[in-house]
Amino acid sequence: MAIVHGTASVLMPWRFTLPRRRLSRQTIVVVRTEAGWKIGAIHNGRVRPVTVPEPDAFPSKMSQLMARTAHRLGLGRR
Asked: What whole-number distance in Å separates Cα of residue 43 and Cα of residue 3?
């Protein structure tokens, strides 16, 4: 078995360069069989920058609220 990673995009006929916002990353699992290498699974997703939200931004506030609620409900404890 092998895992193959690639980054690519489709170049439209009217373009000369690949737009960065169109880049996709592929992860492919290939399996060696008696008949040769076969694709077992594939995942394709857009390449996007990972950012950390500011402490007072909506995602941060929602995460804090969910953590407080889970704590009050006793969730996540063993």
From this structure: 11
Q: Is the pTM of this model over 0.85?
A: no
Q: Is 11 inside a domain boundary?
A: yes
pLDDT at position 74 is 87
User: Does residue 78 fall inside a structural domain?
Assistant: no
Mean pLDDT for 44-66 is 89
For residue 42, what are the CA distances in angstroms to 8, 15, 27, 30, 32? 14, 27, 6, 9, 15
CA–CA distance, 9 with 14 (Å, rounded to integer) = 14
Q: Please identify which residue in the block is written with the tokens 């399996």.
A: 31
